[in-house]
Write a structure and sequence with these properties.
With about 800 residues, the chain is of the alpha/beta class. The chain has 24 helices and 27 strands. A hairpin with a 3-residue loop joins strand 25 and strand 26. The longest helix is centred in the N-terminal third of the chain and has 16 residues, at about 60-75. The relative contact order is 0.08. The protein binds adenosine-5'-triphosphate (ATP) and magnesium ion (MG). The site of adenosine-5'-triphosphate has 16 residues, from helix 2, strand 8 and helix 9.
Length: about 800
């Protein structure tokens, strides 16, 4: 018999939560219940709790639960307790208690001095059990576990009572005391609630409250050999602590009845705590269950709980994911009663979105190929001053990058036999070396043994310094490092841990471990990175141009042996399959990368389309000359007539060509997921309206992507969706200021730390303000106000 409540075989309980139903027209039904209780003045204070069992590390599903309970407490001026739900001696451990607290702190959640342990309540819980016996509400059952299970009946059959059910109070008390006094072995007796063996809710058919387990408990040692079950211990813990809203996942829906029964019989009066359930987070391509994650750790399929491929908080931290990204992901997915699976892309979005604004750009070469600039004399070179952020980030900063005769470029960026649409170096071509010079192919050498190109020789155009192509059409722009100056680095590229979306629910019944992705970790041992990395402050995450975000592995990296984890790629490479045109492979833009699978439908194909269709060719020219679009964007929009017409249709609604183009080029293909334009449930007008809402400041770009996703799934009016999802942005300074003030007064200790120099806390404050506003404050506005107020 498991101590933890398990889902029963009952048909779904259709009754609603004690307060109202889940179908309220609100983004988050739990917050509206709490808000109503606040208005009614039902509780003196809103108190929630986060109740992890210390039997493993926290995972991203727990982040959802924490964001909800800590979030609600903060939003309603209450408090959230951390309670270790440690009623199960066999699997729990002090090391997990420590790890969980560390993870929570890292995420920025604070329980003040409200740290509790269910085990500390054992004596009080036991006293209540004796009271229940005295009231005739509990009895000692001496049947075996199997007999008890068998006699509980089924959905169609009521349970059957046995003779033990009629034991009198004195005998029950005597037996329970002797159970506690170690007179019996495991499983000889249990204490059961005396409720109703015919209840339609199986949980209510005299549930077990205590069982005998002669096991050492990490906290109470050998003091106890009887342990309370979840259904008994959890509600009592909540009631002892004065919790008002006990939030848990839907598998406990049927247990709500026993939650209320125990508290009623134990004499806790209203207004007392109640349980509310929300849907658990299920994330594609991974498993979120400590029981299964522990199997991967024990089985050596991962290097530990903090393996950067694990969906654990410790794994994300080690990988380089900032805590703000996990919190904004939690805000993005919201809270509902509907069980859904969440696409990992959403999480990756949140990570990219967080890093894009803060990660300095650098160059690093993953798989180096020598490139000799023959027009530079031996030993010559220069230090280029290179900006660390593209202009649209609005951040200052630059670094020195050495340019020299011998460079390294990606092996992928040179091709002897370039496929159609290849926009990189090849015989007869010129490319721009990012921030450097335009170079022209002169020759190459091949290793006769392997047939691989070992060296490429080029000549540079001194007039093109800084990458100015002087009006010439170059094939593309590639990144590079100076061979003599670059630092060697080991790069670890991570991919999804599993190669199926739901590894635990395979139609063929295979075990989840059979679906591990063999390529989830790729180690590149010969990478070379620009020397500026050596000077970066610790904690820096960089954007390697064209290849992704990286940071030093906190365990294995050292100044002597740089080991960099790829936090996330620049763009999802899994969904770029078919349907829509490929985006440009221009470095420096956060979106594109040529790395990864997917057809390379590049410039060549579009050039060909235009040379066969004068209408397309003239549209391209118009987009550049009349609308002022860059050549790359104009090119991408005019590869076929449908896309050009879609763009123009959107432009008819919102006349900002650049922003409309950016939506059509960068966001639309992702959400189209391989469908053709005429298969989408929305059209150009909606696209235009969405772009307009962003430009008007009604919705943030991140939130608008959510709206687009919804549009692409179901169609509709962007503005209606936006309001339904509660994503309307609070951009006005005044509105954001209110939240800033609240956050600063809520976190005096953190404010002090910030003012004493812990500037890294700024992101934490921004996150709090956004949360405080229910996700509607514009983070940029919040950040600007916070900087003013804090400095
Ligand atoms: P696991 O199934 O991974 O063992 P658990 O529910 O046993 O998880 P607990 O430590 O008991 O883990 O969980 C603490 C809190 O986190 C509970 O309130 C639980 O409902 C919540 N929680 C656990 N998994 C998820 C999830 N995937 N999504 C949302 N909340 C979750
Ligand atoms: Mg569980």
């Amino acid at each position: 018999m498991s101590d933890r409540a398990v889902p029963t075989t009952m048909p779904p309980d259709t009754s609603s939560s004690p307060e109202g139903s889940a179908s309220q027209p609100s983004r988050d039904f739990i917050r509206s219940i709490v808000a109503r209780h606040v208005v009614e003045g039902r509780y003196r204070e809103i108190v929630t709790r986060f109740p992890p069992e210390p039997n493993g590390f926290l995972h991203i599903g727990h982040v959802k639960a924490m964001a909800l309970s800590f979030g609600i407490a903060a939003e309603f001026g209450g408090r959230c307790h951390l309670r270790f739900d440690d009623t199960n001696p066999e699997t729990e451990d002090e090391s997990y208690v420590r790890a969980i607290q560390e993870d929570l702190h890292w995420l920025g959640y604070d329980w003040g001095n409200h740290l509790y342990f269910a085990a500390d309540y054992f004596e009080r819980m036991y006293g209540i059990a004796e009271d229940l016996i005295r009231k005739g509400k509990a009895y000692v059952d001496s049947a075996t576990e199997a007999e008890i299970r068998e006699a509980r009946g089924s959905v169609t059959e009521p349970g059957r009572a046995n003779a033990y059910r009629d034991r009198d109070v004195a005998e029950n008390l005597d037996l329970l005391r002797r159970m506690r006094a170690r007179e019996f072995g495991d499983g000889e007796h249990v204490l059961r609630a005396k409720i109703d063996l015919a209840s339609p809710n199986m949980v209510m058919r005299d549930p077990v409250l205590y069982r005998i387990r002669h096991a050492h408990h990490y906290r109470t040692g050998d003091e106890w050999c009887i342990y309370p079950m979840y259904d008994y211990a959890h509600c009592l813990g909540d009631a002892f602590e004065g919790v008002s809203h006990s939030l848990c996942t839907l598998e406990f829906e049927n247990n709500r009845e026993i939650y209320d029964w125990v508290l009623e019989e134990a004499g806790f009066e209203e207004p007392r705590t109640h349980q509310y359930e929300f849907a658990r987070l299920n994330l594609d391509y991974t498993v979120l269950s400590k029981r299964r994650l522990i199997q991967l750790v024990d089985g050596g399929q991962v290097s530990g709980w903090d393996d950067p491929r694990m969906p654990t908080v410790a794994g994300f931290r080690r990988r380089g994911v900032p805590p703000e990204a996990l919190r904004s992901f939690a805000a993005m997915i919201g809270v509902t009663k509907a069980e859904t699976r969440v696409d990992v892309e959403k999480l990756e979005y949140a990570i990219r979105d967080e890093l894009n604004g803060v990660a300095p750009r650098v160059m690093g070469v993953l798989r180096p190929l020598r490139l000799i600039v023959t027009t530079l004399p031996e030993g010559s070179g220069e230090w280029l001053d290179v900006p660390s952020f593209p202009p649209d980030i609005g951040k200052e900063g630059s670094r020195k990058v050495p340019f020299a005769r011998e460079l390294l470029i990606e092996q992928d960026d040179f091709s002897l036999d370039p496929p159609k649409g290849y926009r990189r170096l090849a015989p007869g071509r010129e490319v721009r070396l990012r921030y450097g010079y335009v170079v022209r192919y002169d020759g190459h050498e091949v290793d006769p043994a392997t047939g691989k190109v070992t060296v490429v020789r080029v000549s540079h155009d001194p007039a093109s310094r800084g990458g100015d192509a002087k009006g010439r059409r170059v094939a593309g722009t590639i990144h590079w490092v100076s061979a003599a100056h670059a630092l060697p680095a080991e790069l670890r590229l991570y991919d999804r841990l599993f190669n199926v979306t739901d590894p635990i629910d395979m139609p063929d019944g295979t075990d989840f471990t059979a679906h591990l992705n063999a390529d989830s970790l790729v180690v590149l041992g010969d990478a070379m990175v620009e020397p500026s990395l050596a000077d970066a402050p610790s904690g820096t995450r960089w954007q390697f141009e064209r290849t992704g975000y990286f940071w030093p592995d906190p365990v294995d990296s050292s100044p002597e042996h740089l080991v960099l984890n790829r936090v996330v790629t620049l763009r999802d490479s899994w969904t770029r399959k078919g349907g829509m045109p490929e985006v440009a492979t221009e470095p420096g833009r956060a979106v594109p990368t040529a790395v990864g699978p997917g057809p390379d439908r590049g410039r060549g194909a579009r050039d060909a389309a235009r040379s066969g269709d004068p209408d397309l060719a003239s549209r391209m020219a118009n987009y550049c000359e009349v609308l002022g679009l860059g050549e790359d964007d104009a090119d991408l929009l005019t590869g076929d007539r449908d896309l050009a017409s879609f763009f123009e249709g959107a432009l008819g609604v919102h006349q900002q060509a650049k922003s409309v183009a950016a939506w059509v080029i960068n966001e639309l293909p992702r959400e189209a997921r391989g469908r053709a334009l005429n298969e989408l449930p929305f059209g150009p007008e909606e696209m235009g309206r969405l772009a307009a809402l962003v430009d008007e400041g009604a919705v943030s770009r991140v939130a608008a992507k959510e709206v687009l996703r919804e549009l692409a799934e179901k169609g509709g009016d962007p503005e209606v969706i936006l309001d339904r999802m509660g994503l309307r942005q609070v951009a006005g300074r005044g509105a954001v200021l209110v939240h800033v003030e609240k956050v600063l007064s809520d976190w005096p200790a953190k404010v002090k730390e910030y003012r004493e120099g812990k500037r890294g806390l700024l992101g934490f404050f921004v996150g709090q303000v956004v949360r405080e506003s229910g996700g509607r404050a514009d983070p940029k506005v919040a950040k600007a106000i916070l900087e003013e107020r804090l400095n």
